[in-house]
Every structure is written in C-alpha cells, then in structure tokens.
Amino acid sequence: xxxxxxxxxxxxxxxxxxxxxxxxxxxxxxxxxxxxxxxxxxxxxxxxxxxxxxxxxxxxxxxxxxxxxxxxxxxxxxxxxxxxxxxxxxxxxxxxxxxxxxxxxxxxxxxxxxxxxxxxxxxxxxx
Length: 127
Hints:
Elements: E1 3-7, E2 10-13, E3 18-25, E4 33-39, E5 46-51, E6 58-60, E7 68-73, E8 78-83, E9 92-99, E10 116-117, E11 121-126
C-alpha cells in the first residue's frame, strides 16, 4: 500500500496560481501511474490529470487543459499539479491517487482505476 499526502492547497483569487504536491511513501513510486482528481461539495469525484510512471505520457480533463500541468519527480517520490489561471469553478478538494498497474488511458480517468488515495487538500478560488 502506498501512503499519499497532498499539500499546497489554499484560498486564492481568480486568475491566481497554485502548485499542489503529493508525496508518496511505502511503495515503488517510480513504477506507478499517478493521477489528480477533485471533488466539489455535493458532486462526484472528477478526473483532473494523470501522468505515467516515467512522465512521458500525460492526460488532462478538458476543463483544465492548457491551464494545469501535471509533473513528477521520481527521485523525490512526488507528483505535482501546477494550476494557473484559476477559476471559481476549480474550487474543490483535490486528491492524488496511485495506480499500481501501469498506464491505461481508459483507466486513469475513473476513480476505480486507482489503488491508493491521499486525504485531499482544499483549493478555494474566489471571484
């Protein structure tokens, strides 16, 4: 089992930027596909972005494409989500997740495709 701890959330204004981090421990981080999801109050958990084990493949939800960038540093066992041009509709709890079974474009976009989850970090964007 992989332990995941997110950080970097906060309260920002529309148009600002934030960088979320997710530190992993307890597994072979460099072999995992990593993903970011978000969940607003009363809504389902939605896919945001994913990155393959080596970083060569990434995938984004249409709602964040061009504004958010996912990256990873396997030497630090950490995955990042750089969020630029934030909008009020980006307000949510952001979760990172680990998929221990390789890269699959169909699997990375659904919560059931992941094996381990962090506790989440709140991002609030005011208008």
